[in-house]
Design goal:
The structure holds two protein chains of two kinds. By secondary structure, chain A is α/β, with parallel strands linked by helices. Chain A has 18 helices and 22 strands. Chain B has a domain of 253 residues: ABC transporter involved in vitamin B12 uptake, BtuC (Orthogonal Bundle). Chain B contains 16 helices and six strands. The chains are: A alpha/beta, B mainly alpha.
């Protein structure tokens, strides 16, 4: 096959942040009509490369060529005008407006200064229809699930070129982690749309941490490591093991080790006991026991009540029935303070909104929980603080290892580690991890899972929530299965428990 | 990005990136503007054992604003705002003066201290009310504090029976109009309050917790910070600062004017905080920046008088300068006007020279 000319070529891209060289001389190219995966660990420079391409960050060196012409992309708007559209993990639309309004925000067709509402609805319906989607464009966006909202965001981005009169159309579509909160059917729907756009000649840049998805949908991939280019391969030529080795720069033994790792077999006495704990609209009343040193995994589909259960155990939401006993003492659970005081820690699935304080430094974020429990009058002595922070930065391999760095500038995996450090420093009895491995790469994923195993060995109990069943199965002593906001079964892990067994339980909704 | 030969520019950049650089630069520029109009602007002379000079006056007249702005900084850092400080200034002044004026001997120290105590307690109660509405009832800070902003002046008028109360108390006069160790006494009050505030926020964990609450309220709740307590405390502290400013203003004029004492000082204070580099969105705050911001505003007022701007154009002139100051503070504006582009172009060709295959780790300078 003769190689056509790439639609996009980035050469020698350099990007620096204070104290960090995020990209050093990266080359990247994208051909029309292909789906191209950008792979790499957290902090490898994927997000930075995308942000340089889409005009969010100005580049410090290198050139970008679009359709053979050198371009300067100074802002997201310029990127859009040049034909580069982006859909981010978090949908940046207005949920209170209708689908049609969302598609046309900022470029409404007007006549004599008045917005042509009819035309907006008609055109929006046509655009949705052309892409084979079944969406009522007059309904408010919020009436659709997140997955559909994401599709609308894509419609909005690719529809842009047609309507702005320049006739350029979208040449490059960037999808940054679009699948991280979608279920299987929704992913398939997204893939259908992606294939359709690809066949229309759009070049799609796809970022996902799900390797299976990469192998399902992508044609070609570029691998980054530590801000440099490691290689560009056809997907068909590189198997998953090879890819992971390229990404983390070392052989897979380390990951394999985990599979053979024996779970601690003797869990201790009961640590946390929930009886009839429930909250209307959150999760139906449930009974649950977590033993000392036990890893309790929660399995269930998105929205099945996993997070809601965890939040009740932490007092993040107030229960309206039932009680919680921790080491024999009843805890009121009217606020997170109650749970924290009893030795419970909670890493939320929403790192940005419920976890980090982005303006503060790594050090300040790490000591926050410990400081909060000491109260404002008893600051942690500086020497002790610095020692603790340095210890956890080293133990969790947080990069950059600079306690003064602003946490907002770290990559997703490192932010997750900062959150973990924040809670580990308080030496909790029960650590609740809600999707700790979401949106982070293989290497960091393995590290976090290993950490869970060793914490459990040291006698800490862990409540572990993950979308990937393999993860739950690998780590947990007991697996709680949720369905439709109900805890339907608790399975003791053993050789006879497999992912398909868990799936059956989810599907049937009863203990078999 | 810095090559070994570029240490001077690097140092210069480190300096211009310091968070106090632009506020200080603006302050210095404003001070210099005065020199052509009053050549002895920077001169400080001694008369009657007191130091006199424009610089001393700026600090003296700026004292109440500095106090109010310092309290406001903490409120703004939690993501709030306090519009009631002007009214609190008036209430404190009114209560204190009316108590002193009722005394048989207005110079009795005990009476003066008691009067000040009453005024300050009233101020703190106002702060408690604000904090209660904001933190406990969840009312938008701008609305919650609007209540005392509007009603407070009415209360002050009630206390003074709608009159301007004048007093004649030597000890009370000291706070806002007296001298100590050749300097205006209010400068010492301001220095003490600023020192206490810095110690309170940076020597304890209060500053960190305030910044955390302002930076991400939900995350702070989930980490176990008692943000309600912290917010109430901060509003009370802000009102206390306003109360001290109220004492100072009424002491300086030996009178309590429920209508005009501290009028619009809340707006100047908010401006001072913003000029000082604290974001209205909350989070990181800088007490030092606020002090400089307040000095900028007071210098501006002084400048308006020294260069003889006609009274009726006072406010327009002030507004124009404020706009310039705010624009200078905006990194976006500076990049547009002073051209960050030029610099980027110079460094760009040098970069690809880095051997790509050397695979540098994410390197951390410093």
């Amino acid at each position: 096959m003769a190689e056509p000319r790439p639609v996009l070529e980035m050469t020698g891209i350099v990007k620096e942040f204070p104290g960090v060289r995020a990209l050093s001389g990266v080359d990247f190219r994208l051909f029309p009509g292909e789906i191209h995966a950008l792979m790499g660990e957290n902090g490898a420079g994927k997000s930075t490369l995308i942000k340089v391409l889409t005009g969010v960050h100005p580049l410090d060196g290198g050139t970008i060529t679009l359709d053979g012409k050198a371009v300067r992309i100074g802002s997201p708007l310029q990127a859009q005008h040049a034909g580069i559209s982006t859909v981010y993990q978090e949908v940046n639309l207005c949920p209170n407006l209708s689908v049609a309004e969302n598609i046309f925000i900022g470029r409404e067709p007007t006549r004599a200064g008045r917005i042509q509402w009819k035309q907006i609805r008609k055109q929006a319906a046509e655009m949705v229809d052309r892409l084979g989607l079944d969406i009522d464009v007059t309904a408010p966006l919020s009436s659709y699930p997140l997955a559909v909202q994401q599709l609308v965001a894509i419609v909005r981005s690719v529809g842009h070129g047609d309507s702005d009169g320049e006739g350029s159309g979208t040449k490059v579509l960037v999808l940054d982690e679009p699948t991280s909160s979608l279920d299987r059917d929704e992913v398939l729907e997204l893939f259908r749309l992606m294939r359709r756009l690809r066949d229309e000649g759009v070049a799609i840049l796809f970022v996902s941490h799900f390797l299976d998805q990469i192998y399902e949908i992508c044609d070609r991939m570029t691998v980054l490591r530590n801000g440099t280019l490691v290689g560009e391969h056809m997907v068909a030529d590189l198997d998953q093991v090879g890819l992971i080795e390229l990404m983390i720069g070392k052989a897979l033994d380390q990951l394999e080790e985990l599979h053979e790792h024996q779970l601690r077999s003797d869990v201790g006495e009961t640590l946390v006991k929930a009886e009839g704990l429930g909250r209307t609209g959150g999760i139906a009343p449930f009974d649950l026991e977590i033993k000392k040193g036990e890893v309790l995994g929660l399995a269930g589909l998105l929205g099945s009540g996993r997070t809601e259960l965890a939040r009740l155990l932490f007092g993040a939401d107030q229960p309206d029935s039932g009680k919680v006993t921790i080491v024999g003492k009843q805890v009121p659970m009217s606020a997170p303070n109650d749970a924290i005081g009893a030795g419970v820690a909670f890493c939320s699935e929403n790192r940005k909104t419920e976890g980090l304080v982005p303006d503060l430094t790594v050090r300040e974020n790490i000591i926050l929980a410990l400081q909060a429990s000491r109260g404002w009058t008893r600051p942690i002595p500086a020497s002790q603080r610095d020692e603790l922070v340095a210890k956890y930065i080293k133990a969790l391999d947080i990069r950059p290892a600079n306690p003064e760095a602003r946490v907002g500038q770290l990559s997703g995996g490192n932010q997750q580690k900062v959150l973990l450090a924040r809670w580990l420093i308080t030496q909790p009895k029960l650590l609740i991890l809600d999707e700790p491995t979401r949106g982070i790469d293989v290497g960091a994923k393995a590290e976090i899972q290993k950490l869970v195993v060793s914490l459990s060995e040291d006698g800490m109990s862990v409540l572990y929530i993950a979308a990937e069943l393999e993860e739950v199965l690998r780590l947990s002593h007991t697996i709680g299965v949720l369905r439709d906001r109900k805890l339907v079964a608790q399975l003791t892990n053993g050789p006879e428990i497999t992912t398909s067994r868990i799936l059956e339980t989810i599907a049937s909704g009863e203990h078999q | 990005m810095s090559t070994p030969s570029a240490t001077t520019p690097a140092r210069w950049r480190a300096l211009t990136h310091h968070h106090l650089f632009w506020p200080v630069a603006v302050l210095v520029a404003l001070l210099l503007v005065n020199v052509p109009f009053t050549p002895d602007f920077f001169a400080i002379r001694m008369a009657d054992g007191h130091l006199y000079g424009s610089l001393v006056s700026i600090v003296l007249f700026g004292s109440p604003l500095i106090l109010v702005a310092v309290g406001m900084t903490l409120v703004i850092a939690t993501g709030g705002i306090d519009l009631s400080v002007g009214a609190v200034v008036a209430i404190t002044g009114a209560l204190t003066c009316s108590y002193i004026s009722d005394q048989a001997d207005q110079n009795a120290l005990a009476g003066v201290f008691l009067a000040m105590g009453i005024g300050l307690v009233a101020a703190v109660v106002c702060g408690l009310w604000n904090g209660f509405l904001v933190a406990r009832m969840g009312i938008q800070p701008i609305i919650a504090t609007l209540i005392i902003m509007v009603a407070g002046r009415g209360v002050a008028q009630l206390i003074t029976d709608g009159q301007i109360i004048t007093i004649n108390s030597e000890p009370y006069k000291l706070i806002g109009g007296g001298y100590w160790l050749t300097l205006p006494f209010s400068i010492f009050v301001v220095a003490a309050v600023v020192a206490v505030t810095v110690a309170l926020t940076r020597r304890t964990a209060l500053g960190l917790l305030v910044e955390s609450v302002g930076g991400n309220a939900e995350a702070s709740r989930l980490v176990g910070i008692r943000s309600m307590r912290i917010k109430i405390m901060v509003y009370m502290f802000c009102a206390l600062c306003a109360g001290i400013a109220g004492l100072m203003i009424s002491s300086n004029t030996s009178a309590a004017d429920g209508n005009n004492a501290g009028l619009w000082i809340e707006l100047d204070a908010i401006l001072a905080v913003v000029i000082g580099g604290t974001s209205l969105l909350g989070g990181r705050f800088s007490i030092g920046g606020t002090v400089i911001g307040a000095l900028v505003i007071q210098t501006l007022t002084t400048t308006i008088y020294t260069i003889g701007v006609p009274t009726q154009t006072n406010l327009v002139f002030k507004a124009a300068v404020v706009i310039v100051v705010c624009l200078l503070q905006s990194p976006k504006f500076r990049a547009k006007v002073f051209g960050a582009k030029g610099r980027a172009r110079v460094t760009a060709p040098a970069e690809p020279a880095t051997p790509a295959d050397a695979a540098p780790k994410m390197e951390v300078s410093r």
